[in-house]
Specification:
By secondary structure, the protein is α/β, with parallel strands linked by helices. The protein has 13 helices and twelve strands. The chain has helices spanning about 15-30, 40-50, 65-75, 90-100, 110-120, 225-235, 235-245, 260-275, 285-305, 305-325, 330-345, 350-365, 375-390, and strands at about 10, 30-35, 55, 80-85, 105, 135, 145-150, 160-165, 170-175, 180-185, 200, 205-210.
């Protein structure tokens, strides 16, 4: 068995019939489930059951979902909370997030979505034969990247080439501030990671630079995105192809993409790919902000239009600012977001705002008692921030980016 934990889920709803159905469904897929018909009973069970995920209905007697969520968030901050309701999202979603929910879902919840959020917010024990297996194509010893073959979450195409750089083959530098540079190490040929930074599905043109945005096989294509996101983006397949006037989509899987193809792939990721403000992926605004920033850099290297470049960087700023409004933004994503907010403000000449943001970040760490427990990735982004704060950001240094 492959051991993953915590697989305990607590469901609160005043409908006994719905509780029974959800409990049976989750039990069949390896989850340990407790149920409660209101928030009072639910909080009592939290003390002994200690679930990894709580699914809370909003309208319940004695204690409603809002109050229950606020108490759980205060007493058990590490527990994930998903709220759901038959009321329209426009009416209750804002208050659900304000109460401390990680996600809001509209009733009824279909089984694939229920299992999707269970997989996202908990972990389970799975048999070896059910483990996810990934195909990695053969590569030469001096090849600076590995090709992972994955499945598109949206259309199900099971042959998306995702190019993953080998750390032993290159050195990454963020000295320029807004974008990374990659230098080949001894024994490896030069490879421009920007050419394949964004993986693009050759069928529907769904695009992302995060390998976790694709499934390792076709059995797992209902996760991690919401049903609404999938429906909207699936309907947009023809629109995305028309957006860039593309006929031969195979070019997007070519490791030697030309500049125009690379710009188009970032454009897809920005406009038609991730776009998951309607989904449930933590860090979505930070991801899209990164797309728009690299997209702007590449376009500027092509057309040298500085006014357009500065305007595009300001658009990226608003996206990164939205990320900080999400209450459950992780510390790693927060560090990355502040890095780009400060770097972009420095690049656009807004030094006063950059200084304010730096003080915000310092206050954040002061409130949580420092950064001694920071992960390696979080420390890396903070170190990059200290470097650009000392050396500055020159957004015009683009001579060698392509």
């Amino acid at each position: 068995m492959a051991v993953k934990s915590n697989n305990r889920i607590l469901v609160m709803d005043d409908s006994q019939a719905l509780l029974k159905v959800m409990e049976q469904t989750l039990n069949q897929h390896g989850y340990e489930v407790e149920t409660a018909i209101n928030g009072v009973i639910g909080l009592q069970k939290m003390e002994t059951f200690r679930p990894g995920l709580v699914i809370v209905d909003i309208m319940m007697p004695e204690m409603d979902g809002y109050e229950a969520t606020r108490k759980i968030r205060n007493l058990y901050p590490e527990t994930s909370i998903v709220m759901f309701s038959a009321q329209p999202a426009a009416v209750v979603e804002k208050q659900a997030f304000a109460s401390g929910a990680d996600l809001f879902l509209q009733k009824p919840i279909r089984e694939p979505i229920l299992l999707g959020i269970a997989k996202k917010y908990t972990t389970v024990e799975i048999a070896e034969e059910e483990e996810e297996h990934e195909t990695i194509l053969h590569y030469d010893a001096d090849q600076p990247y590995i090709i992972h073959v994955r499945t598109c979450y949206f259309c199900g195409c099971d042959h998306v080439n995702f190019f993953v750089p080998r750390p032993e083959a290159y050195e990454e530098s963020w000295a320029d501030g807004l974008f990374p540079r990659y230098t080949a190490k001894d024994g490896f040929p030069r490879w421009d990671f920007l050419r394949t930074m964004v993986a693009v599905c050759p069928s529907c043109l769904f695009a992302s630079y995060d390998i976790n945005d694709f499934a390792v096989d076709a059995r797992h294509t209902s996760f991690p995105y919401s049903a609404d996101a999938k429906r909207i983006l699936s309907r947009g397949i023809a629109a995305r192809k028309k957006m860039i006037g593309v006929e031969n989509t195979d070019a997007f899987s070519n490791p030697n993409r030309n500049l125009q193809r690379t710009i188009e792939s970032l454009y897809l990721a920005e406009k038609g790919g991730n776009g998951l403000v309607i989904g449930d992926k933590e860090g979505v605004y930070c991801d899209i902000g990164f797309y728009t920033t690299i997209h702007a850099v590449l376009k500027y290297s092509q057309n040298q239009d500085k006014i357009e470049y500065q305007n595009n960087l300001r658009e990226s700023l608003s996206l990164f600012s939205n990320q900080l409004k999400i209450h459950n933004t992780s510390r790693v994503t927060r560090a990355k977001t502040y890095y780009f907010l400060i770097a972009l403000n420095m690049a656009t000449g807004a030094s006063i705002r950059a200084n304010e943001l730096k003080m915000e970040l310092e206050n954040f760490y002061r409130k949580i008692g420092g950064a001694d427990d920071a992960s390696l990735e979080e420390r890396t982004w903070n170190e990059r921030l200290l470097y650009i704060w000392k050396e500055g950001v020159n957004a015009d240094i683009l001579r060698e980016i392509w």
